[in-house]
Amino acid sequence: MSRLCVVATWCLVVSVCIAPIAIALLSPLLEWRAPVYIAAGLGGVVALSLLLIQPLLAAKLLPGLSPKVYRSTHRLIGFLITALVVLHVIGLWITSPPDVVDALLFVSATPFSIWGVIAMWSVFCTAFLVGVRRKLRARVWRTIHRLLACVTVVGTVTHAMMIEGTMGYISKLMLCAFIVVATVWLVIKGVEFKKRV
């Protein structure tokens, strides 16, 4: 891959990830909001942006990285996403405990909350799975991890698109579209690889 293509690829990925975060930071909806609420909301936005990086790393689509860097960065970002989800939920709990309880019990009046909880549990299950990975066969690990990744993506993207919040609609739509396309591509390539072997 030429240097120009490498630079263009990285610029595109960084732009798609950074734009929603920048727009959220400048959103007038954050005026007069408590710091805890702002931190919780931005935690969710950053986690969504990082979610795009995961399938790109897993599929080795980010140029200029070694296999070791792909693996270590994938694990690091997975940890960061989990931590940001925890921050997001705790922040929302502090600002409005009844809403969080309703969401966790799947009785929330806002459908986007249900999708958020589904994505949250999927992320936590993935983190647990990483902890017991050595006890699982490689094929079992890959299958379960890929399934949980799909649940996380569907839940997170649906959750984000249903919220009219601080992220700009166009930037959020582009980010979510890239996440879905990258994830679908990774799953299809994984299936093709299984057929060959």
Describe it.
- The chain is mostly helical.
- The chain has a single domain (3-196), classed as Four Helix Bundle (Hemerythrin (Met), subunit A) (Up-down Bundle).
- The chain has 7 helices and no strands.
- The protein has helices at residues 3-25, 35-58, 67-95, 97-104, 111-131, 138-162, 169-196.
- α3 (67-95) crosses α4 and α5 runs antiparallel to α6 (138-162).
- It is globular.
Brief summary of the model shown:
The chain is an all-alpha fold. The protein contains seven helices and no strands. Mean pLDDT is 90; it is low at 192-197.
Features:
single chain; mainly alpha; 80% helix; 7 helices
CATH topology: Four Helix Bundle (Hemerythrin (Met), subunit A)
Strand content: under 5%
Give the total of domains.
Answer: 1
Structure classification: mainly alpha
Average pLDDT metric = 90
Uncertain runs with pLDDT below 50, 5 residues or more?
192-197
Relative helix content: over 70%
DSSP helix count?
7
How many β-strand stretches? 0
Rg of Cα set: 17 Å
CATH architecture label name: Up-down Bundle
Q: State the separation between the terminal residues, measured CA to CA.
A: 27 Å
Helices and strands, in order, run as HHHHHHH
Rough outline: globular
